[in-house]
Write a structure and sequence with these properties.
single chain; 393 residues; mainly alpha; abc type-2 transporter like fold; 2 domains; four-stranded mixed β-sheet; 67% helix
Length: 393
């Protein structure tokens, strides 16, 4: 057996693995089809959800009891495109079960309190834990607050007092976010899905060519060939990495084509994922696309069966699920060193790409250097595992 690394041997292993992978067209189709279909479907669900919330915000529905006791309030709500309907008797149960977003109860003494100059009271009833009701609740709360302010100003004018006396502070809100940055906030889920594609694209193939071949007892004959363990590892990793790159690229192309050509509902915000964003995503995701198949192969080569290897990959799935979600809900500014942390740093860079922010050369270098270092260490560790197997009697 040669003691020097041979590109020819690694190439032979690569061609052999490619033939095996592409020969099983059904499995390959099951890997590629989700990349083509799930991404666009995912985007359509996001847009339909946003559009639904937008429709609720423009024309919310409110169940009212005692509308006759406050005609001025009801007229104001109707002018603001609120759809008024009678309040059912079991309104509390309907609100708890999500059948009703919110309810307004106006007591009989409302008119008497207004006539006597007292503070009139209404009951606004809702269930804050219902996600789908949040838009309606917020819109109705805002309208009631506006009506309350207008009513108070009218009372002051009738008493000869300028309304500015009760509201001495004038607030002029200035939003510094560009339209692209406003849209990027909602497209953060696209960054998460693209990042997740780097994990799942080559996972099945990497586990099959390691734990699967051991289980089928086809790995041992390969170890007695003239190819060295490192050459075998690199040949197999190149195949899984190539499939992973195809899946990630198809996922990104699906996003691009969907946002550019699909008949998505209007949501009032621009979602920019042009060819420039696509190329920036490819640049950020490339090191992870190469690293993760190697990690899967290492997990597979240490497992005694495919089932055991799949159970071990749950740790990677957990990391990919938790880190981006934690960043989504993090209330403080991301530290500068986060770019050093794989997954977290790459998710941060993808979010910046959607916002149109410029990458620094240092961030790009670190985002590539750290995964590449981990890649070399992982490939070396995989070769050591195979080398130990070749030495076993």
């Amino acid at each position: 057996m040669s003691h020097h690394f041979s590109l020819r041997h690694a190439g032979i292993i690569f061609r052999k693995e490619c033939l095996d992978a592409f020969r099983d067209r059904r499995t390959l189709l099951m890997i590629i089809l989700p990349a083509l279909l799930i991404g666009p479907l995912f985007l359509m669900l996001i847009f339909n959800l946003i559009a639904t919330h937008g429709e609720k915000a423009q024309s919310p529905e409110l169940a009212v009891q005692g509308a006759a006791y406050a005609p001025a309030l009801i007229d104001f709500l109707k002018k603001q495109q609120v759809r008024i309907k009678p309040l059912p008797d079991d309104y509390e149960a309907q609100i708890k079960h999500g059948l009703l977003d919110a309810a307004l109860v106006i007591p009989e003494h409302f008119h008497d309190d207004v006539a006597s100059g007292k503070k009139a009271e209404v009951q606004f009833i809702y269930d804050r834990s219902r996600d789908r009701a949040q838009t309606t609740i917020g819109q109705i709360e805002r309208l009631l607050h506006v009506y309350n302010q207008q009513w108070g100003q009218t009372r002051l004018l009738l008493r000869g007092v300028a309304p500015e006396v009760a509201a001495p502070l004038s607030i002029r809100a200035i939003n510094l976010a560009t339209p692209q940055q406003s849209g990027a906030l909602l497209l953060s889920l696209v960054a998460f899905y693209a990042l997740f594609a780097t994990l799942t694209g080559g996972m099945a193939l990497a586990l099959d060519t390691s734990a699967g071949e051991r289980e089928r007892q086809s790995l041992q004959p390969l170890l007695i060939t003239p190819a060295r363990p490192l050459e075998i590892v690199i040949g197999k990793w190149l195949t899984a990495g190539m499939v992973n790159m195809i899946v990630v690229l198809l996922t990104l192309i699906g996003f691009y084509l969907t946002l550019r050509f699909a008949p998505l509902p209007a949501v009032g915000l621009p979602f920019l994922f042009s060819m420039n964003e696509l190329l920036r995503f490819c640049c950020v995701l490339l090191p992870l696309t190469l690293l993760l198949p190697a990690l899967h192969f290492y997990v597979g080569i240490r497992g005694r069966s495919v089932r055991e290897a799949q159970a071990s990959t749950s740790i990677l799935l957990l990391l990919f699920s938790l880190l981006p979600v934690m960043q989504m809900f993090m209330q403080q500014r991301e530290p500068e060193w986060i770019v050093v942390v794989p997954i977290a740093g790459h998710y941060s860079m993808l979010s910046h790409a959607l916002r149109g922010d410029v990458f620094s050369y240092a961030d790009i270098f670190i985002a590539h250097a750290v995964p590449m270092l981990l890649l070399f260490l992982t490939l070396w560790a995989c070769a050591q595992c195979l080398d130990r197997e070749t030495r076993q009697p």
